Amino acid sequence: MEINSEIIRENILKAKQGNQKAFNFLLDTFWNDVYGFLLLRTKNENDAEDITIRTFSRAFDKIESFDDSYKFKTWLITIGKNIHIDLLRKQKSRIIHHSSHENDDEMYNIADDTPSAEDILIREQNLSKLLRYIKKLKPHYQEVINLRYFQELTYEEIAQKLDEPLNNIKVKLLRAKKLLAEIITNK
Fold this sequence. Notes:
One of its GO terms (molecular function) is sigma factor activity. The chain is mainly α. It folds into 2 domains: 5-100, Rna Polymerase Sigma Factor, Chain: A, CATH 1.10.1740.10; 117-186, Orthogonal Bundle (Arc Repressor Mutant, subunit A). Helices cover 74% and strands 0% of the residues. It is built from 9 helices and no strands. It is globular. The two termini are 25 Å apart. Mean pLDDT is 81; it is low at 120-126.
């Protein structure tokens, strides 16, 4: 099926009415455009993906304010650009604040790359193919799938646990499920 402006317009209208399939369609249709734009700006895959998730979250939150006299892709990219600019400003203010209050005794949180007890257990017990496929996802996608489907937390509980907005969690889960489906169908 060819995606034309009429199909996009119909899905935007459906999304404004809360239709989840329309949100999925818009996410699938515009993900690569927004991600590609942000990857060029950030030059970092993780940052680009994080900002893309935030972009769709904010866009879906504010979809009723979208003016269809503009292109939806342009609207999304503008949101992404603004989020990126905000993050750069925050980083700059943190650097200025940090350098003016340096303390030699300060400790930093450094990510530990060693396998967790869960990773070792999964490896030792050779769990099902599904778990191996899930492990191919990026860590933040693994985490939301684990919290939602293995720990059976609600979206709200996941949002609280990860200290992220509810819509970010919904978009992350949606994206994680789509990537997982791609991994499974490619095997």
